[in-house]
Task: structure prediction
Amino acid sequence: MVETQNSYDVVIVGGGLVGIALACALGDQPLRVAVIEALPFETNRSASYDDRTIALAYGARPIFEAMGVWQQLAADVTAIKRIHISDRGHFGAARLDCNDVGCEALGYVVPSRCMGEVLMARVAQFDNVELLCPARVTSLEQDEHAATIVIEREGEQQMLRSGLLVVADGTHSAIREQLQVAVDRHDYGQRGVIANVTPSRHHDNVAFERFTDSGPMAMLPMDESRCALVWTVSEARADELLTLDDEAFLAELQDRFGNRLGRFEKVGNRAAHSLMQIVAQEQVRDRLALIGNAAHTLHPVAGQGFNLGLRDVAVLADLINTAAVSGEDVGSATLLADYAEWRRNDQRYIIGFTDSLVRLFASPLLPIKAARSAGLVALDLLPPLKRWLTRHAMGLGGKLPRLSRGLPLQEK
Ligand SMILES: Cc1cc2nc3c(=O)[nH]c(=O)nc-3n(C[C@H](O)[C@H](O)[C@H](O)COP(=O)(O)OP(=O)(O)OC[C@H]3O[C@@H](n4cnc5c(N)ncnc54)[C@H](O)[C@@H]3O)c2cc1C
Result:
């Protein structure tokens, strides 16, 4: 039997980093919000050498400040002051420096566990946000008036009605599939091997992006002199790297990365993620919007996936709030069209940039190898080009919503 229905202004399916960030942004607003999450909301509080990390673009900071969570996060973040981009075995390197753009950092590295904990603690403070979990969506219908969602929770079926349904259920979004939203999918046939490593030389707050003939590797600065490694390799190579003992793994890493950080001395647990790009061909429909990985999953080479999702959040929250305070419909076709339009350029740029980076540096063709070396040199020598690229990668390009300018959605 389906229980009586509950009415909400916004229902968010998926309480991952992006979904929960939207719930935080909408906290304390004149809205009734629900988050449906398949897994129990639990966080692992034990500190570990192997914290998974996210590189936050500088533009994430004002958003988190305006949401009132930056102070809590600040204890766990490591600033990226410089980025060093190089192509193994080829001349040319590019260096991006926070001083060139007048910011105290180009970005920040934060363990995703810490970010999850901080966002969860924040969302729990809001009376207008309900967390429905563990729960799963069993059916969904929408028309121009509302979205109707049936969920199963604790063995009971519950019907919810909402003015707006936000789909944030990740890369393999079941809701996206159920709605038969077409996607552009590209499987890179690669996996990202991730691990924390400790080099003998301190990272000095430099993030390294190193392209090698077997795939790109990112080395991000962390606390306690650790670095977070994301090493992109073929499927077969990933299996090999996972089974090597620590000493052999560190030797392979040293060979590929070189000696910029001295000797690699310690490695934590290793894991591998399949790498693909999945982009939904439609991000809005009657009464619904797809955001985060459900809308666009990227190769992690440029560390932009979560950042792009967070900017979806900032824009959507801005539009929802503007509608709500003026008594307008928060799920109207106009609002959703405005959302899609506002997000179009940033998404296109970041998706195209990330995909081109993977393909360009994977090419074995000599003219392309020569061109990319020349490109790195040109980038290093052309300050205006470098500033433009840096500002976009920092999430500071285009028209910025209130949260991205560090302003709360509503003045108190
Ligand atoms: C190796 C690697 C390194 C990365 N590094 C970076 C980086 O440095 N910087 C960066 O910006 N990004 C990075 N990313 C990308 C980033 O991790 C993702 O973009 C981000 O976590 C996506 O968040 P999300 O909330 O959209 O999706 P998810 O984190 O996948 O969350 C989806 C949520 O929905 C829930 N869910 C799923 N199905 C249902 C359902 N039917 N009903 C209810 N709930 C459901 C899930 O349980 C989950 O909690 C990296 C990714 C990888 C793989």
User: Anything to note?
Assistant: The mean pLDDT is 88. The two ends are 43 Å apart (CA to CA). The pocket of flavin-adenine dinucleotide is lined by residues 13-19, 36-39, 54-55, 136-137, 168-171, 174, 192, 194, 230, 273, 292-293, 300, 303-307, 309 (CB under 6 Å). The longest strand covers residues 183-199.
